[in-house]
Amino acid sequence: MERTIGVGVLGMGVVGEGVARVLATKKDLIRRQVGASVDLRGVLVKDQNKPRSYELSKDLFVNSIEDLIQNPEVDIVVEVIGGEYPALDYIIASLKKGKNVVTANKEVVAKHGPDIFQVARENNVRVLFEASVAGGTPIVSPIVRDLVANDIKSIKAIINGTTNYILTKMAQEKSDFVNTLKDAQSLGYAESDPTNDVEGIDAVYKLAILSTLAFRARIRDTDIYREGLSRLEPQDFQYADELGYTVKLLAIATLHGCEVQARVHPALIRKEQMLAKVDGVLNAVEVETDIADSIMFHGPGAGSMPTASAVIGDVVNISRNLVGDSGFPDPLKLSENIVIQPITSLRTQYYIRLEAEDRPGVLAQIASVLGQNGISISSFIQKGTNHEFGTAELVIMTHEAVEHSVQDALNGIHKLDVVASVGNMIRVVE
Amino acid sequence: MERTIGVGVLGMGVVGEGVARVLATKKDLIRRQVGASVDLRGVLVKDQNKPRSYELSKDLFVNSIEDLIQNPEVDIVVEVIGGEYPALDYIIASLKKGKNVVTANKEVVAKHGPDIFQVARENNVRVLFEASVAGGTPIVSPIVRDLVANDIKSIKAIINGTTNYILTKMAQEKSDFVNTLKDAQSLGYAESDPTNDVEGIDAVYKLAILSTLAFRARIRDTDIYREGLSRLEPQDFQYADELGYTVKLLAIATLHGCEVQARVHPALIRKEQMLAKVDGVLNAVEVETDIADSIMFHGPGAGSMPTASAVIGDVVNISRNLVGDSGFPDPLKLSENIVIQPITSLRTQYYIRLEAEDRPGVLAQIASVLGQNGISISSFIQKGTNHEFGTAELVIMTHEAVEHSVQDALNGIHKLDVVASVGNMIRVVE
């Protein structure tokens, strides 16, 4: 009989619902990747009757952590309650019962990570926590696994989506902090009590986790200097802009010799830097290393589904180990019924440059060939004129069109008497 | 006795030298991360007497692949010869002898990946190939492991550093292709025979690997439409710029239902897009997924040490398995002698905004306080005047200074009669 892996989930907030939803809707994908079925065996919630956006069978609800961790059919406990207590107690209790743990809890990992890892090691189980930093963007695993040959010299990160959203809006709309925060709250980008985000506490937790992993040394949240957004005035954004800078809440940790400097505060960063271009609720982590140079990871920092992506990634990787696999995904698990489309069926916009006679009616002839092929023009520019030959260079941007029609049209245009040559066609990518 | 892991290296070009160098210089780090020593046991080279930038003991050189794969002390074979043959034959021979393989060879993985994985599986060993795409930037492992819960919808990537360097230069210097290529060759950014790079062949190999992994379906190099740089003229860059676009050689693969469209060609991409900002020899891969949204990985795409970073990462992860570990790095392997520096010892530039009386001599007083604290001014702007109070807003950017001096200076400035208030101080981040 095929082995099945049992999962128990602690908490059914937005992330918990995402986890339950992905486990159900991606059952086949997960089974194929693991080589075993991964089944939800129980969910610990406070209020079983609360209406939820993702409805679960009532049979899955349990009243106490004991109901989950005493269940021999639960192999992995997913902790998505958040906050320090009771999450920490539940994690420790699960590990002591021999359960593997996947957690999205930055506060618990930042404050108690090394203690938790110690308990896991003593009980010969694992704790994974990819979702605790930067939501669905892989960063924990790349640092500890892919970049293992590197000594990491610094981390520079935008790891709080709420504050990055507020700063982006303040810069774009020249608005003040209090009103921008209110707007962010009404849009659901900031919580009703925004303290953890706007005072930089959330970013400090995440930086404590990242710098502990990067420097292979325990960096506590209390080791990190912290300053929030509240002193920023609209004119700071204007002056920063004039000076060539963008204002970002950066989380920075640097290692010089055996000295660590770690801090979270509003910072001016040159507009040309990639981090300056990270807008809205997105996150980005830039890691500077000794041998792999500087690497940036950029993506969603929160949200139900992105965070579930990281949680399920950890669940799958533990499951692969539980079924006796080494933890390396087998690249051979391929699907068979994929069809390759030829370039001629591509649909996109096109840039076309051509040399044509510089006289009235020429554009009409060209547009007519395009139109016969179902291609409409989005913009048209006549560039430099060649007086010797009486020609001009024309640049045409099309609306979305199909490649084979564009190829046909270019053949037709090339044959027009008024066209000297088709210089180039370049596809536009969204 | 502690187990040791033996490594044999095929080829001693720039990447091979990087691998040998990292294995030697990072011996302690690797031992700590693996829980066993990882030792170089042999190197297959064509010419043992060729001078090398990293000198190896002559005892390590072997003449034939058999000398390495018949050696029971070699656990992992690292293939960094490049090209299709004999690399493919050596990889297959190694796997059949029960050796794990780490390869940086995009051509072999693109053309023969699934066959190689099959042989590995039959012999119960592994093939890892992180270095085959985007050099030191983790991308293979994040796709197959961290993003495993996702269905990937598209890949958009800049995965050839040579062509991105040429395009960046053509855009900046309005130069033509032929001359820019010559410059790139003289600087070592393009090979003497640049065909594989400028015709997009190298990018096709990498896209075949990425799209096979992302779509979990075999996408061959021959399935991918390919167009190189040679038709681009200087005016294309100018017109693209005027239209709001940047010209990049993009590698794109999209999956709609069960249909794949994969292509490598010069493309216009909107300047605001992150990929448009990837300049010079850097690489970036943007992955669009169903649940983790859009994620970008950005970093070095080639080079001796970055590529060695990826190779050694794979070697370490196989070694972890060989010593009986599950492949999850233990986050507890921490160093003890790390010192946390307080924010007061930070050295950076500072932005200072203050409100002061709008009359001659005021700046002198402020500059004097800064000077007494060893802080020099990089720029100074007088902004809006408040006529009612006779004050003006001043913005000062300092040269690099130490935080405690800045704090002292701000206290001193605050006490000046001519200063109404210190509005804000924001740290600048390089």
Give a verbal description of the structure:
2 copies of one chain form a homodimer. In chain A, the strands form 4 sheets. Chain A has a 6-stranded parallel beta sheet with strand order 3-2-1-4-5-6, with helices on both faces. Chain A has a 6-stranded mixed beta sheet with strand order 8-10-9-7-11-12. In chain A, strands 16-17-15-19 form a 4-stranded antiparallel beta sheet, with helices on one face. Chain A has 3 domains: 4-136 and 305-322, Rossmann fold (3-Layer(aba) Sandwich); 140-300, Dihydrodipicolinate Reductase, domain 2 (2-Layer Sandwich); 343-427, Alpha-Beta Plaits. Chain A is built from 14 helices and 19 strands. The radius of gyration of chain A is 28 Å and the shape is globular. Chain A has helices at 14-25, 27-34, 65-69, 87-96, 106-122, 140-146, 161-173, 177-186, 195-198, 201-215, 234-243, 304-322, 362-372, 403-415, and strands at 4-10, 37-44, 61-62, 76-79, 100-103, 127-128, 152-158, 225-226, 245-256, 259-270, 282-289, 294-300, 339-340, 347-348, 350-357, 377-386, 391-398, 401-402, 419-429. The model of chain A has no long low-confidence stretch (mean pLDDT 94). The first copy, chain A, has 430 residues and is α/β, with parallel strands linked by helices. Chains A and B meet through helix 2, helix 5, helix 6, helix 10 and helix 11 of A and helix 2, helix 5, helix 6, helix 10 and helix 11 of B. Strand 10 (259-270) of chain A pairs parallel with strand 13 (339-341) of chain B, so a sheet runs across the interface.
